[in-house]
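Re-run with default settings, no changes from the original entry. Doing this only to confirm the output is reproducible before filing.
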Amino acid sequence: MSAADGTGGVTGIALAGGLGRRMSPDGAGSDKGLQSLAGRSMVAHVIERLAPQVDAMLINANSNLATYEQFGYPVLPDVIGGYAGPLAGLHAGLLAATTAWVVTAPCDSPYLPHDLVSRLASAATQAGAEIAVVRAGDRLQPVFALVKRSLTSSLESYLAEGNRKIALWYCQHNAVEVDFPDPAAFRNINTRLELARHEQGLLS
């Protein structure tokens, strides 16, 4: 899906706005997107894979904004306060995007597929859907989703009511689940032990 195909284009959003409590030994929080994996930050791996698939790129972050700005893309803090989770990052991206669609990917999933957007876009077009979300194996991966920008007001109302669950908001709309054959592509890295294991695997 791109501006050239008449659909209005798609903006990628790297979601790096979480507290990352599991990444910090004391539970106080650590910026997961900036943790190093094979010599580069995890968000750099995500951007490298996602940016070529989209027409524009944004980063959602709530700390270390100047560091995230060095990647060369607009950096957006949550508009909804209180670290409201991935939906708050999606909301910030929907407000800032100028394309007809946005696609989200978390900063701690550095192996996302190179055909993520094309597969989601094809499924959304075929189903006439407003949202296309990844299913890999037997698991829904709700933070990997293609969403119509026209749903901004709906999401804003949902968040204003105190709701935070992604899947429940998807259920309010015409959403299609898209099967991906490789669940490993959607692995996320939550702890320093997981990070060390992935580092060893990539460098061995």
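The chain has one domain: 3-194. The longest strand covers residues 139-148.
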